[in-house]
Amino acid sequence: MTAPIQPLSQPEIFYPESDGQPMADNTKQFRYIVTIQGGLDSLFKDNPDVFVAGDLLWYPVEGNNTIRQAPDVMVVFGRPKGDRGSYQQWRENNIAPQVVFEVLSPGNRFGKMLNKFRFYERYGVEEYYVYDPDNGNLEGWLRSETELSEIPSMEGWVSPRLGIRFAVVENELQLYRPDGQKFVSYVEIDRQRELAEQRAERLAERLRSLGINPDEV
Question: Coiled coil: which residue ranges (predicted)?
Answer without folding.
Answer: 186-213
